Amino acid sequence: MTDPFDPAEFTDPAHANDPHPFWRRLRDVGGVVPGLFGSVQVVRRGEVEFALQHPEIFSSAMEAVDLGQKRPLIPLQVDPPDHVKYRRLLDPIFAPRQMAPLEDDITGLVNDLIDAFIGRGECEFGAEFAIPLPSAVFLRMMGMPLSDLEMFLSMKDGIIRPQGTTVEEVQAYQRRSAERIDAYFEQALEERADHRRDDLLSRFLDAEVAGDRLTEDEILGMCFLLLLAGLDTVTDALECDLAYLASHPGARQAIVDDPAIIPSAIEELLRWETPVTTVGRVAAADAELDGCPIAKGTRVGVGLGTANTDERAIPGADRVDLTRNPNRHLAFGGGVHRCLGSHLARLELRVALREWHRRIPEYHLAPGTELVYSPALRQIDRLPLVFGLP
Description:
Blueprint: H1 20-29, E1 32-34, E2 40-42, H2 45-53, E3 58-59, H3 82-93, H4 96-99, H5 103-117, E4 122-124, H6 125-130, H7 132-142, H8 149-160, H9 167-192, H10 200-206, E5 208-209, E6 212-213, H11 216-230, H12 233-247, H13 249-257, H14 262-272, E7 278-283, E8 287-289, E9 292-294, E10 299-303, H15 304-307, H16 342-359, E11 363-365, E12 384-387
Parallel strand pairs: 2-10
Antiparallel strand pairs: 1-2, 3-7, 4-12, 5-6, 7-10, 8-9, 11-12
């Protein structure tokens, strides 16, 4: 962290559309660079992996990221050893063998969405496909009616994309949104107290951790995290994937010609277009990383996006190879806090790309479109697509 670097550059919107040159420059400065408000950013692959694999030093507790909630997001904001008992409960629920039976249902949802706009020859991909697909899957798993979708999206955006022009206004907006989320799930749990259903909420009510039933606070912490993850990250990945393929007809045609490459294409696009570019940690003890002293209590941003394109660790990191193998990307994080829903996300992405290219093999960006990406979560403001060749 010896070279001069202005942390204000992290908020420069000029980096959002194509962050790779900025990330490359960060890595050239060092494995750790100054961040905003006294934080530090970990940006090289080796240092990022170390931070992810050592929660005793780089903690994921509530102090790392305050989203306005009253309780930790379980299991993300609970470190070992307590973290283990929650993963033992949740990992089997989200294991590949539990996700596989959902494929037919997801396939039906994908084709229903396509049916609604394919006849028009165009769509706004985010609003008409990328947002409703993972949201519908989440609501069905949780046992919530699809009619509540707009309310769920509003609550989620109130946490991830809060309104306000000052830190205080943003935090107040997040707190109000968190209260709405808690109130919704408290009512849902009350409805299932005496009448279980075939959904995740009912399973949580009957589940035990280390011989004890989950408390309401624990269940609410799980629901809060599942809401944020289930309604946003797959949407962001779908938008970035289709934007890339619409802008790179050779890559699009490769998928059309050989759908068998879809699984590896998904992994490569997750690497290149990492949806969650940075995850938050807080130093649980005084530490040193790449020669940089990090004081206890310092907020630490762990750069998944820049680690995924670090030429020091990945051959050909600066180019997209849809058949790359192996592909040890960190789009789902790493260590004990690796993304709980990664198997479900991969299933949704695989089915979506397979069915989309089966039915709409040719598409391009609507004429005059200028894509606008957000700087944190890699999300696109609007993605209008026109079917057929330009």
